[in-house]
Design goal:
The complex is a heterodimer. Chain A is mostly beta strands. Chain A is built from no helices and eleven strands. In chain A, strands 2, 4, 5, 6, 9, 10 and 11 form a seven-stranded mixed sheet that branches. In chain A, strand 7 and strand 8 form a beta hairpin. By secondary structure, chain B is mainly beta. Chain B is about 0% helix and about 60% strand. The termini of chain B are far apart. Classes of the chains: A mainly beta, B mainly beta. At the A-B interface, strand 5, strand 9 and strand 10 of A face strand 4, strand 5 and strand 9 of B.
Chain lengths: ~120, ~110
C-alpha cells in the first residue's frame, strides 16, 4: 500500500514570496490533515478536510495561508506572502475516516521542509 | 502547562541500553499514539493504543488510563533507533491529535 506522498521535500524562498505544497493521501482515505511543525515543537494542526469539505481551519492564518482539496483526493497548501516565522516542516496526514469508526489512525507523509530567508 | 508532557526532552545512551520515554497527559483521550520522526522530517506511527500494552519487535508501549500516563520502551537499543519520539493523544470527543514536544534520542555505538 502506497503511503502519503508530499512534494517538494525541501523548499527555500525569500520572505514575501509565495509557495505551494502538494499532498496525495493514501487511496480511499476520506480525511486529510495539514500540520505545521516548527523546530523543537510538536506538530500543530492547520486544517482538516473530510472529503472536499473543511472540518476545522481554526488555526490556519487565513490572511496568508490557503488550502484546497477540490476533488476530495489530493490537496495543496499555499502561503502568500511568506514570513520568516513560516519556516517549518509542513506535514500532511490522512486517515480512513470510515463511517462509525471512532478512533482514526493517522498516516503521515514525509513532510516538506520550508526555509524562509 | 502543555496538555501532553514528555520526559526526558533529550536522552543519550550507549548501544544496547534499555530506553524508557514517558508521556503524561491532562485531557480525556480515546487513544494515544507513539510516533517516530527522523531528521528528514517524516513521521512514522509506531503504536496506537487505548489500554494495556503493545509490543513490536524491540519496542514496547504501555498505557495507564487512570494515571494518564504512557511509556515507550526500547530494548537492546541500536544507533538506528536515534530519532525524535513523539507522544500524541487523540482527544476524546473531537478525535483531534494533541502532540507532545518530543524526546530526542541518540544512541551511541
Amino acid at each position: 500500500e502506497a503511503g502519503v506522498a508530499q512534494s517538494p521535500r525541501y523548499k527555500i524562498i525569500e520572505k514575501r514570496q509565495s509557495v505551494a505544497f502538494w499532498c496525495n493521501p493514501i487511496s480511499g482515505h476520506a480525511t486529510l490533515y495539514w500540520y505545521q511543525q516548527i523546530l523543537g515543537q510538536g506538530p500543530k494542526l492547520l486544517i482538516q478536510f473530510q472529503n472536499n469539505g473543511v472540518v476545522d481551519d481554526s488555526q490556519l492564518p487565513k490572511d496568508r495561508f490557503s488550502a484546497e482539496r477540490l476533488k476530495g483526493v489530493d490537496s495543496t497548501l499555499k502561503i502568500q506572502p511568506a514570513k520568516l516565522e513560516d519556516s517549518a516542516v509542513y506535514l500532511c496526514a490522512s486517515s480512513l475516516g470510515e463511517v462509525g469508526q471512532y478512533i482514526r489512525e493517522q498516516y503521515f507523509g514525509p513532510g516538506t521542509r520550508l526555509t524562509v530567508t | 502547562k502543555n496538555e501532553v508532557e514528555q520526559s526526558p526532552q533529550n536522552l543519550t545512551a550507549q548501544e544496547g541500553e534499555f530506553i524508557t520515554i514517558n508521556c503524561s497527559y491532562s485531557v480525556g483521550i480515546s487513544a494515544l499514539h507513539w510516533l517516530q520522526q527522523h531528521p528528514g522530517g517524516g513521521i512514522v506511527s509506531l503504536f496506537m493504543l487505548s489500554s494495556g500494552k503493545k509490543k513490536h519487535g524491540r519496542l514496547i508501549a504501555t498505557i495507564n488510563i487512570q494515571e494518564k500516563h504512557s511509556s515507550l520502551h526500547i530494548t537492546a537499543s541500536h544507533p538506528r533507533d536515534s530519532a525524535v519520539y513523539i507522544c500524541a493523544v487523540v482527544n476524546f470527543g473531537n478525535e483531534k491529535l494533541t502532540f507532545g514536544t518530543g524526546t530526542r534520542l541518540t544512541i551511541i555505538p
